[in-house]
Amino acid sequence: MSSGVAARRDAKKLVRSPSGLRMVPEHRAFGSPFGLEEPQWVPDKECPRCMQCDTKFDFITRKHHCRRCGKCFCDRCCSQKVALPRMCFVDPVRQCVQCALVSQREAEFYDKQLKVLISGAPFLVTFGKTGTPEAMVCRLSSNQRFLVLDGDSHSEIEITRISTMQILTEGLPPGGKSVPRPVPICVSLPGGSARASGMLLQYTVPGIEGEIQLKLMAGEDASASRRLATAWLVAMHKAAKLLYESRDQ
């Protein structure tokens, strides 16, 4: 990809919305697939009472809109200002109690796991069901839109074209052998002796009929590379949940 195209893809601009200042992609098509659109605010005339505690609004009890859900609340039920990077806000914004909890949980992804994904990790990568595994480094592009694989060859997969994703885990039963097994994205990674060992995903490519399978497997040794790959898979598990949530918005 040329530097000019990459620069346009990563260009951002500062805009002001009713909810606050936002640093958004200059071109809407280049927005993060994990992002959320700003909600429509519930009109003032449709919320004479707080939508959480049912307190009646008057000259003393003012109404406030949650920047994440758009509902109307009193100050007591909507007093927290929490960072909301999924909507590209520059500063923390006012959110209701429930939305603030969700945003605080997501903060770990943006503060820690997103950095892990962008840094990348080494895997054995197999394209298709019968391909030959190739040692590659897999990472998320800085604009969060592409899965980038670098080795003897180079590939980029657009995140929005991934249709299904499964994290493979392996356990160590007493006297048994580690056996990779899929874990649905909708559940948390299991604890105990199980550990993330790989990822299986299906994606589409423009002009090619059907879906393509991609398999990433961490190395079998207990080296630093294996630990790095495991941390990357755990971060990708969280990213997939955010991705599907954005699609369902």
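(ticket continues) Second input and output from the same batch:
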Amino acid sequence: MTTPAPAVPEQESKEIRAEWRVFIPMATKLSQETLGDVFDGPYDKRKGDGMEGRSDVYIAVNPAIGLKRRGAKGRVELKLLTEDRKEGEEEDIKGIEHWKKFKIGKGLAEEESLAQVHTLLEAHGLIDSHVTSLLASEDGTKSVEVAKLRVGKVYEDHGVLVEDCLVEAEGKQYRSFAVEGNKEKVKAFLSSHAVGKKMYELAMTQKEAVLHGYPNFVCKCACL
């Protein structure tokens, strides 16, 4: 297949953010009234009722590469895991990851979008024959549709955004908690704030919890 000359991606994230996220399997689907009950007060309602719901389609590439189409006809987004931990370094708070995000030009044809993705992966040394074949859909690419309903709360005094999310993927239900921000502030929130400590305890004690971001979670759903 001939690949068109890739254009420069429309937008690149300026900051590499730290993210801590866990997916906890649920035996039954929780009601939306459950959302936000982990917070120590009401969640933020900056848009409508404060709840955001949509379905994204992910391509299961590998745990270090997140590739999705946002919404039914949304733009392609690429998320790359950055490796900044020293080998053998012990962390007192487990599960914090660092991601660099790219938004690919909105309205591009699928082939053009994936050509840009290929260029970005190549620039970051993440392209190989397996990834190339996935992008070309030559080996039965595994796509996973993930439905989300979430709320968030900014803890301004602690410099973090906390998310509570109901997730459905491959017919299974999950509840996902996340904390985003500066690495040290994420660590401090999870280790010292009552809400963070509660979420971290759940992550450490719940059977089959997935303590990773969406790319790793999607790969597990796709049985890769």
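Agent notes: Confidence is low (pLDDT under 50) at residues 1-11. Strands lie at 11-12, 17-26, 52-62, 65-69, 76-81, 96-103, 143-155, 160-169, 172-181. Closing as not reproducible unless the customer responds.
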